[in-house]
Queue: 3 jobs
Job 1
Amino acid sequence: MHPQHWMSVESPGLYCRPADLYIDPMKPVALAVVTHGHTDHAMAGHSHVYATDKTMAIMTTRYGEEMAESTQPMRYGESVMLGEADDPVRMTLYPAGHIMGSAQVLLEYRGSRLVVSGDYKRRPDPTCLPFEVVPCDVFITEATFGLPVFTHPPIEREVDKLINSLQVFKHRCHLVGSYALGKCQRVILALRQAGYHKPIYLHGALIRLCELYQQHGIDLGKLVPVSEIEDKSTLAGEIVIAPPSALADRWSRAFPDVRTVMASGWMQIRARARQKQVELPMIISDHCDWPELIQTIEEVGAKEVWVTHGRENALVYQATQMGFKARALSLLGYEDEQETG
Amino acid sequence: MEDFSDLLEQLYFTGSHNAKSALIIDYLQRTPDPDRGWAIAAMAGALRFDFFKRNAVKQLMLERIDPVLFEMSYDYVGEMSETVAHLWPASASPGAEGLPSLGEIVTQFAEAKRTDVKPLLTKYLDAMTAAQRWALIKLGTRGLRIGVSARTMKQILAKFGDTDVAEIETLWHGVAPPYSDMLAWLEGKADKPDISEEVTFHPVMLSHPIDEKNLEELQPKDWQIEHKYDGIRVQLVSTANGKALFSRTGDDISPSFPDLLQSITEHCVLDGELLIMHGDNVDTFNQLQQRLNKKKPPKKLIESLPAGLMVYDIIADEKQMLTDRTLDERHQLLVRFIERSRSDRLHLSQPLQAKDRDSLQQLYARASDDTAVEGLMLKRKDSLYVPGRPKGLWFKWKRQPKLVDAVIMYAQRGHGKRSSFYSDFTFGAWQDDVLLPIGKAYSGFTDEELKKLDNWVRRHTVGRFGPVREVAKELVIEVAFDAAHPSGRHKSGVALRFPRFHRIRWDKPANEADTLDNVKALIES
């Protein structure tokens, strides 16, 4: 049966009727599958949650042990059967390459296959398995950077900009705005790979998630909470990482001669960087850029593409030009420019 | 060219004035002529020709991308140069081949035949990085905005040459890019360039809006009081080498007003308000608008709407510059100059008399009722003619704006700094139970309010027409404007002059906004 007859958009989010299952719902529901741990996908308060074990760990870190009434961790490639025993929906998770624990969701029902990509990227990321192409009839793709102006440069080049700046502005504290989950750890790893081995200083909101990554065997090198530094003037010439909301906050005023850096895919558009008073924009994204979105649609080869999260119009248009049947799915609750870019 | 592009990139992301100044001075010190002179001209907005038109850039781009994707991208980015910089197909190794110097690029475009411009532009766009493309397009279309105004540039040059900014100001419009003579003088390698007989613009003196405190403190006897006429502020320059009319920003608008210039025979620099005048009678700003931006105005138009100059001040006479005289002295000289002038188009802006603050208030009340003027000007009698906007010398006291409550109907994203924010609003007034658009406003709100408005638009969109969002007819704004005119071009039949946000009435129900009849009642005859 065509997925349009068993999938719909309801007010909590994307809904699979025969399984009574919501994907990344934004209201508490009975049965939820969570693709990854970003707050605009994972919330506390559902009765029963499916997710990868790492996503569960992230949710527990953020929301505590009580984040759901019951949970069922799943491995990549493992399936569960949902709905009526004589008319089941089979659900399987596959790697999405977005952040640690991120997954795509394959739903199979009455002979047709639908994949929800969640958020995903195609660039190498040492903190997660690469995105896996899963053949299907309908592919629901995100489109955060769904415009041809977005082509992300290699992360090495962007991190070099920061390292060069540290050499030019030896006495300025480089305050890097970065989303707490995924981006922060990826930036730290890229700095380490580029040969930066000094301690990196962290805003309090980033510490527990970095610890979690380290518990999962990801070596982030020496990290120091900013709160442990009594004399903030010693942070001249050092890297401090903070969530973007803290950049303009009173918190940052204590640092010596701050140079504001921001790691985000949005930094490609210079006016956006200026609006946030960023002096050194680093274009680093955990999403696909435009060429990668197109590459993925081609490789997945689904007859039908549903587009959500972001600039749907351009990607729907492009997919149609490429010969796919395409439409936009408007999901509420997802800001079109949140800080997870 | 690489250096210039790097400089722009750094300036773009640098907030502080001092840091910008340091970057530019460093560039001037390590860059040879003529490159550095062209860079100055580009940043200060003093380039005198476009290398290519925006439209040529767009056409080249559309040969390389689907037009629908281009439009969507442009709408999102909010700026043409950057949209093209990102969309242009990158070569295998952009920026790897060395580019010619800035001076060479300027020369190549200046000398290129019409048909050669596009191939030349294509060649460079192909070879450049996205940042360099942005720099070239901004340079070539004279659209560079990196927070360095002409005034800032002059201050930086003064610092570079260790001289006073006033020296640069007086010289500025008499020298041309790439400024090799001026830069040599600033470096102490040559004499100051002589510009005395050039027909050039002299930077004008501007006023501040008056506030309650200023008003309470001022002694009327120390001040020259004049009407603030409702035309455009201009400077008329006439020397043995020619005559010209400049806007207050220095744009040469002579071709639109040959009748005024022909009437002048004396050597002078005059500061005044350009108006349509039938003898001594001042016509409306609406009428003046018909004569603006017409490079070859038809004879009939010139005869039916003759241009006149309401003269406020005299900056130079046949003998000398008068900027170091007091307003009192200049005024005496101006009265005599106009008496003797053979022109019938010059009118003296008559000082008004107020013996105390009460009579000043009465003058203001009367000026507010007079539709030919916008309010009063108050100038210290002992003020020298100081270019720029010096503090405490000249004040404008504009009449109160008119206000209507209108309903927001459509919103569009802004450009440049406001890219991505819904900041351009169309608003309407009620005719029975239908709203008719009466104008557009883009200003008058704070950055905080802009964020709230943007958010409101996103949550209240009921339709989309390309980049335009139609919104629920729920939000009332108090619109301030200077005047209402009848209009045949608008369906509502009314056009507002300089509408802007006065207040956002989050609390007011839309059905209590003003009717079109209320708005039309404000039209002045």
Job 2
Amino acid sequence: MTSEQFKQHTSRRFNEELEHLRTEVLRMGGLVENHLDRAIEAITAGDSEMGLLVAGEDYKINELEVSIDEECSRVLATRAPAAGDLRLIVAVIKVITDLERIGDEAQRIGYLASRLASQDHPHDHYSELKALGEHVQTMVHDTLDAFSRLDADDALQIVEEDKLVDEGYDQITRQCISMMMEDPRTIRRFMDISWAARALERIGDHAKNISEYVIYLVHGRDIRHLEISEVKREVGS
Amino acid sequence: MAVAEQAHKVTNTDKASAVPPPAPRKPDSPVMSAVPESAAPELAPDPGKYETIGDVTATDPVLTVRDCNVYYGDNHALQHVNLDVGRNQVVALIGPSGCGKSTFIRCLNRMNDTIDTARVTGELKLHGEDINSRETDVVLLRARVGMVFQKPNPFPKTIYENVAYGPRLHGLASNRAELDEIVHGSLQRAGLWDEVKDRLDDAGTGLSGGQQQRLCIARTIAVNPEVILMDEPCSALDPIATAKIEDLIDELAQNYAIAIVTHSMQQAARVSQRTAYFHLGKLIEVDQTDKVFTNPSHKLTEDYVTGRFG
């Protein structure tokens, strides 16, 4: 499956509609990436203003989700797409839901960043948060890349990578707990850090979901809720 | 004349060229009956051979077709088609105009007999009985394999007579009461009874298009067919009449095997369990309908169902 095949319909208008949908998803993805980058920057640099700014701009992502959704319903109603085209529409509807959720998590991180900025700012812990943040940033970036290139192999790798994010999250949680036990006055701060890590972990899950939709789009196989070994057998890689 | 059995419809020149007959063969050899008369015995490979993607067989098949070829004069219109139609199953035949789908279903009740230049070869069986055999009673065959056409074509008779004609011809009713019963039952199953019960003596041609089509379906099922062939049964109907016919197809599938040719892909997706895609006389792909419309295996099928046809 290549992106060329969305441009070969007898109806030129249909080509344009599908092409437009794909660009809109990538535009929304770009916006989500941008919010995520700034939210992580805000929390690690202790930039309260930037945190609030990112949180306040989440509506832009929400608006895109609504408009892409509408466009999908319209294409479904007027074109009754089949096969690869149908899978594209179904995948888009699902991808944008997860993108919107990533936006919500970025918003949450933005608020946490502004709250944490007013408190003590020990560097060592935020570096772990930063590492986790960079990992999910890469995942989000790569999954959007896989979506645009219809690359199921890359998508499968991202699905596997989510495990590492979960481990990173566990590690931060454990550290937070021991810090809170050591000094109960830090509980509030470490609760927030733990929430931020939790948000990043959720973003990893959403990136994984998007990759699963990419595999569905390319191979027509629904691999959700399968073990990774089963998945590899399903898609024959 | 042995050769003529292989092709149920031969022109005079074909007959002339068929003499002298080839080497003697066992009369019931199934392999021989599948070989076109012009071809050498089964040794010669046919360059037109190809593989159909998907499972052409059906569990509990009513119709089995193997290596079916149709020629209109020199035109090889249908090439090496294998396909089963199973009981209680709707098979949709789709493909662009001229791809052979109508030609195919017309083989199944020998409608191609009506075309002088048409020649059909291959093994076509209805419950194991050879459809193409010269011994086959075509009138009886067409009662067992009924057909509904694109344009509703009721007889210029009353509604009652339209339905009663077939059963009377085949002697299915021994008295008027039984005939009434058949007419009532058929119209009921065709979903038309309530609309026409008070005017059975009106002309069938006076009904609306959708009603006429259901009358034709009632006429078809009145003679207890095993298979119903439908050649674009809804293309002359409005969406409401179409929806009624589609519902009817669902119900009929509980008792009959149905093969339907349609240009509406949504219709094929809605009414059928299996879908067969034809392209330039070849059967490209047969599979479960939901598979064909969400994830077809062959590029040509995908191009067709997604409207990507150059």
Job 3
Amino acid sequence: MVEKLKIFLSRFYIAFIILFLYAPILVLVMLSFNNSRSRVTWGGFTLDWYRKLFSNGQIMEALATTLVLAFASALFATVIGVLGALGIHAMRRKNYQMMMVFTNIPLLNADIVTGIALMLWFVHFIPLGFGSVLLAHMTFNIPYVILSVMPRIRQMNLSVYEAARDLGANAVYAFFKVMLPQLASGIISGFFMAFTMSMDDFVITYFTKGPGVNTLSTMIYGEIRKGIKPEMYALSTIIFVVALLVLLAGNYRPGKKQKNQELLEKEMRR
Amino acid sequence: MKKTKTMNRRTLLASPYIVWVIGFTVIPLGVIFKYALTGQEGGFSLENIGAIFDPIHFKAMLFSLEIALGCTLLCILLSYPLVMALKALNMGRQSFVMFIWILPMWMNFILRLLAWQMILSNNGILNFLLTKLGLEALPLANTGAAVMIGVVYDYLPYMVLPIFNAVAEIDEDIIEAAKDLGANGFTVFRRIIFPLSIPGLLSGIVMVFVPSMTSFVISDILGGGKLQLIGNVIEQEFTKSSNWNLGSGLSVSLMIFVLLSMAFTTKNDVEGKGSAIW
């Protein structure tokens, strides 16, 4: 009896939390089908916003900027981060610790402080625009890559690399053939995380972007006062469904399960 | 001998990153300090840093602190029952749990906040349901309570997941042993689960406290522009008043405050900090 009550209460509480998490998403999905420009009245079901979305140049441009930015910043951050982690790992204890402190600064600092500090610095040498936002995104992405690769480097078997070198492989060849495969899972999750962080960022982009450059986040923020274009709800619903499918596919592929779970855990603990 | 040599040369791989850290972490912090320490007429001055104690700014700072402490506490109070409920249903290790939490993040967070604005507004969805049920409507729009709901909504995952992960790692045998020795559910929680979840709790606190204190978008949308967090004040110094020195000064004060409060929660070893965040 007590056990049954416990199960019931547990189910009830979990359902409550899930409702709390997904209520706003439900509202947004409904708005994407709402045949009215107003947010407060229901004007019947329509697919118009989905049709109009693809001919809305502004939104498509912001989407392209967001995706290119996320991809480029994640890619560059992964290269610099992986090399950085390999180098830091070989440092003496004192330098190692100092580098890890610097790596933690962008993570622990408030986004608003990071964004402002970068903006104040950027205005001295580059025009604020896509370039400055890219530099800013790389700056906050590199630490995520380093922290996700570092545990793999610690577990890595260095003697395999030494053996490859002894057998005549040059450093670059041995790096790509022996070291990189051992680090692959850390590198992939680092890249994935950097991509997500970049897609998700608003505050740092807001301070480091110039006029005329918009990501989806800054565009939505700019529209708050005038009212959000309903096409935006349609786009968000599409992104949400794509993410849902990708995560489902990743989660339920046999054999991949464990790895994906690790990936998600890391993602969530960022 | 050879090994140390390769180790030493391997540090060279970090050179691009070291350049990056100097160029985009150290120098920008130097620049913000320089702006913060420059007075209105140029020259060295502490007035911008001290400006945090001006009544208006101090009020915003106190409200931010109130929101951040309240949010952290509410997140803790919501997280433990959830983690225990998931455990009771044997969902302690399922990727389904991660899945539930990660998915909402793919919906733009500003849009989700706007959805909350609609849910909480005076003639919004929540009040519609409440009046249908014969209850009194809640005037939540543009109140501190609405801002609090917003920050809790946004940062709850960062509290739940570290605690969830810490609890999932607890050896089931320890709990069984305690039960065999006569401990009831509450004792098991108090003596085993809670103490072993503390590392997760601490990283949760770090990850919830700082962003909930410094956010400006949430208060902007759910506070109706009337409720000012310190983040709003700083943002306006840059976007509206264009007093960069004052904005920098407030940012530096905020940074110092945050670092000091972090010193209370995290221990002083760097390695631990990194893995706690992780």
